């Protein structure tokens, strides 16, 4: 027998600006750096710009890794994705697509995670529009065309989450929804008596930035596919924190988008601490409501409950036992429950044990004399 355990599923994404670095001439993996531990505790971790060749094998204790390495004609490897899944959730995950460089799609099974619909999770990296790779390959056009087609395909049977370094700048005054659909997608996904909505209608940004071409394309995707940007409007990031730092300044380049229908499942979105020894980007993370099937209970056998088949003879035994019961002790035990519960404002383990003991005492009236 399997049981489902309530759990909040954590997903993180980080442009690590190369997964290996040189220290005193030695090639050192950043996965061994203590500063990367802030995200390598999440259930799912997507790393971008790994800069690793196709023959590189990545291991991290407790995780299974899927990679999508960018093909290269030179010794200098760029781009690349590595996605890590905790082994305990692997049976609920399926790799759907990694046919294009710098984009990977996974399906999170609705039954395993207790979602209303399957969730299609995409990790991606979109290189700058002025990079030599983009100019040489027209990769920006290709990846946005693929994104549009993939989102349309997966949205038919599930909800969509996109996470990664999009190199998009989006002014917070630019809307990612059509105004006449606000009431349906953002106003009513929580009860009217809910105190603090987890997603606000409008976004904030810690720094002012003009919407660039990628930003316009992302906004078009949002309005066409009913996706919502979580940055700057969600519990955990109400200010729209900076995600990228370099000598030219700061900006917000890393985003998480999700289907508007999935908004009630979002617990929070956050931007992690800037770690210059790892990257010029900050990690981003989301937490979502979920339930996981506890596979360790496969051999669990439900205990057989003791039952009494009621007969005329049992009636006489019951009456006889009733005369022997010290109801004063039972009444005293019941009366003592209230002060304990009021003092702790919860049914703690001591109270629970007391209830169990008293119920057992009352139940024994039926069982005595067997």
TrEMBL record:
<feature type="binding site">
    <location>
        <position position="280"/>
    </location>
    <ligand>
        <name>Mg(2+)</name>
    </ligand>
</feature>
<dbReference type="InterPro" id="IPR004808">
    <property type="entry name" value="AP_endonuc_1"/>
</dbReference>
<dbReference type="InterPro" id="IPR036691">
    <property type="entry name" value="Endo/exonu/phosph_ase_sf"/>
</dbReference>
<feature type="binding site">
    <location>
        <position position="281"/>
    </location>
    <ligand>
        <name>Mg(2+)</name>
    </ligand>
</feature>
<dbReference type="Pfam" id="PF03372">
    <property type="entry name" value="Exo_endo_phos"/>
</dbReference>
<feature type="active site" description="Proton acceptor">
    <location>
        <position position="281"/>
    </location>
</feature>
<keyword id="KW-0479">Metal-binding</keyword>
<feature type="site" description="Transition state stabilizer">
    <location>
        <position position="167"/>
    </location>
</feature>
<feature type="site" description="Important for catalytic activity">
    <location>
        <position position="254"/>
    </location>
</feature>
<feature type="binding site">
    <location>
        <position position="49"/>
    </location>
    <ligand>
        <name>Mg(2+)</name>
    </ligand>
</feature>
<feature type="active site">
    <location>
        <position position="125"/>
    </location>
</feature>
<keyword id="KW-0460">Magnesium</keyword>
<feature type="domain" description="Endonuclease/exonuclease/phosphatase">
    <location>
        <begin position="13"/>
        <end position="281"/>
    </location>
</feature>
<dbReference type="GO" id="GO:0006284">
    <property type="term" value="P:base-excision repair"/>
</dbReference>
<feature type="site" description="Interaction with DNA substrate">
    <location>
        <position position="281"/>
    </location>
</feature>
<comment type="similarity">
    <text>Belongs to the DNA repair enzymes AP/ExoA family.</text>
</comment>
<feature type="binding site">
    <location>
        <position position="165"/>
    </location>
    <ligand>
        <name>Mg(2+)</name>
    </ligand>
</feature>
<dbReference type="GO" id="GO:0003906">
    <property type="term" value="F:DNA-(apurinic or apyrimidinic site) endonuclease activity"/>
</dbReference>
<feature type="binding site">
    <location>
        <position position="15"/>
    </location>
    <ligand>
        <name>Mg(2+)</name>
    </ligand>
</feature>
<dbReference type="GO" id="GO:0046872">
    <property type="term" value="F:metal ion binding"/>
</dbReference>
<dbReference type="GO" id="GO:0005634">
    <property type="term" value="C:nucleus"/>
</dbReference>
<dbReference type="GO" id="GO:0008081">
    <property type="term" value="F:phosphoric diester hydrolase activity"/>
</dbReference>
<dbReference type="InterPro" id="IPR005135">
    <property type="entry name" value="Endo/exonuclease/phosphatase"/>
</dbReference>
<keyword id="KW-0378">Hydrolase</keyword>
<feature type="active site" description="Proton donor/acceptor">
    <location>
        <position position="165"/>
    </location>
</feature>
<dbReference type="GO" id="GO:0008311">
    <property type="term" value="F:double-stranded DNA 3'-5' DNA exonuclease activity"/>
</dbReference>
<keyword id="KW-0464">Manganese</keyword>
<feature type="binding site">
    <location>
        <position position="167"/>
    </location>
    <ligand>
        <name>Mg(2+)</name>
    </ligand>
</feature>
<protein>
    <recommendedName>
        <fullName>exodeoxyribonuclease III</fullName>
        <ecNumber>3.1.11.2</ecNumber>
    </recommendedName>
</protein>
């Amino acid at each position: 027998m399997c049981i489902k355990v309530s759990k909040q599923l954590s997903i993180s994404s980080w442009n690590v600006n190369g997964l290996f670095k040189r220290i005193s001439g030695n090639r050192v993996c950043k996965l061994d750096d203590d500063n990367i531990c802030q995200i390598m505790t999440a259930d799912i971790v997507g790393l971008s710009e790994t800069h690793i060749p196709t023959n590189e094998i990545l291991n991290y204790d407790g995780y299974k890794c899927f990679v999508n390495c960018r093909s290269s004609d030179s010794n200098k490897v760029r781009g690349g994705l590595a996605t890590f899944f905790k082994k305990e959730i692997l049976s609920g995950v399926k790799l759907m697509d990694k046919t294009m460089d710098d984009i990977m799609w996974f399906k999170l099974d609705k039954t395993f995670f207790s979602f209303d619909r399957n969730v299609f999770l995409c990790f991606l990296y979109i290189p700058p529009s002025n990079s030599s790779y983009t100019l040489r390959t027209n990769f920006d056009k290709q990846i946005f065309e693929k994104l549009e087609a993939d989102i349309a395909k997966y949205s038919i049977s599930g909800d969509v989450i996109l996470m990664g370094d999009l190199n998009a700048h989006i002014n917070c005054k630019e809307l990612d929804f059509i105004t006449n659909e606000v009431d349906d997608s953002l106003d009513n996904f929580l009860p009217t008596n809910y105190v603090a909505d987890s997603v606000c209608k409008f976004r904030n940004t810690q720094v002012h930035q003009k919407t660039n071409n990628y930003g316009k394309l992302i906004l078009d995707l949002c309005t066409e596919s009913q996706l919502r940007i979580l940055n700057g409007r969600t519990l955990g990031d109400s200010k729209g924190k900076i995600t990228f730092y370099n000598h030219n300044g700061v900006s917000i380049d890393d985003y998480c988008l999700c289907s508007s229908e999935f908004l009630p499942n979002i617990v929070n979105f956050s931007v992690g601490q800037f770690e210059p020894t790892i990257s010029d980007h900050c990690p981003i993370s989301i937490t979502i409501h979920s339930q996981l099937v506890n596979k360790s209970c496969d051999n669990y056998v439900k205990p057989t409950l003791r039952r009494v088949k009621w007969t005329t003879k049992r009636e006489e035994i019951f009456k006889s036992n009733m005369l022997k019961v010290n109801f004063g002790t039972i009444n005293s035990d019941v009366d003592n429950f209230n002060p304990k519960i009021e003092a702790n404002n919860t049914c703690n383990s001591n109270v629970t044990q007391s209830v169990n003991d008293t119920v057992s005492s009352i139940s024994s009236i039926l069982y005595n004399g067997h």
